[in-house]
């Protein structure tokens, strides 16, 4: 995976090549976009100031021993692009994920099979945390494991034109 910097110097991690070519034939596939996302305490973490691939993303604080920062992850299903607002991510390294507003740790749903310490973290789609209305994704940078647990009304069907 190559890294590049956005116009304003922020690091953008693009979709990896394999994923891009695989999704070629699925270009008209309908994907979900999250309209709402909340921390476990109910803070709204959608950030329209930093759209990722055209949609407001999810603002999350990441933290590992001796390092922390903030990134915005894409609200589009299967899209692992991120904008790093501060700090640095390291490929293959796990970060604990926190609410950027109240600093509550996002809960772990299960472990990810990509490496021994990896967690699948849950982000709720309604203010009161409900694992059935949530998305889950791995907290290791570069791991593409993630899923939409359930499609509620909050998810919007869109046809992606240009990913
Ligand atoms: Zn919060
Ligand atoms: Zn993983």
Which tags fit this structure?
163 residues; mainly beta; 7-stranded antiparallel β-sheet; 4-stranded antiparallel β-sheet; 40% strand; globular; binds zinc ion
Describe the 3D structure.
This protein has one helix at residues 17-24; strands at 4-5, 11-13, 30-34, 46-52, 55-64, 67-73, 82-86, 96-98, 108-111, 119-124, 134-138, 146-148, 155-159. By secondary structure, it is mainly beta. The protein has one domain. Strands 1, 2, 4, 5, 6, 7 and 8 form a seven-stranded antiparallel sheet that branches. The chain has a four-stranded antiparallel sheet with strand order 9-10-11-12, with no helix packed on it. A two-stranded antiparallel sheet has the order 3-13. A hairpin with an 8-residue loop joins β6 and β7 (82-86). The mean pLDDT is 81. Bound molecules: zinc ion (2 copies). Residues 39, 41, 43, 99, 101-102, 104 line the site of one zinc ion.
Strand content: 35-45%
Number of helices: 1
Largest sheet entry: 7 strands, antiparallel
Structural category is: mainly beta
Give the SSE order as H and E letters. Answer: EEHEEEEEEEEEEE
Catalogue the ligands.
Answer: zinc ion
Low-confidence segments, ≥5 residues, pLDDT <50? none
């Amino acid at each position: 995976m190559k890294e590049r910097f956005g116009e304003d110097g922020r690091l953008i991690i693009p979709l990896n090549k394999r994923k891009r070519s695989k999704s070629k034939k699925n270009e008209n596939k309908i994907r979900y976009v999250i309209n709402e996302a909340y921390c476990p305490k109910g803070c709204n973490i959608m950030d329209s100031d930093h759209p990722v691939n055209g949609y407001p993303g999810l603002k999350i604080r990441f933290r590992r021993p001796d390092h922390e920062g903030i990134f915005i992850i894409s609200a589009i299903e299967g899209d692992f692009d991120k904008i790093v607002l501060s700090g640095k991510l390291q490929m293959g390294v796990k970060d604990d994920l926190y609410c950027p507003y109240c600093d509550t740790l996002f809960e772990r749903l299960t472990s990810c099979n990509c490496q021994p310490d990896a967690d699948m973290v849950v982000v709720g789609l309604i203010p009161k945390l409900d694992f059935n209305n949530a998305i889950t994704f791995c907290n290791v940078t570069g791991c593409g494991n993630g899923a939409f647990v359930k499609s509620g009304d909050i998810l919007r069907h869109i046809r992606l034109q240009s990913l």
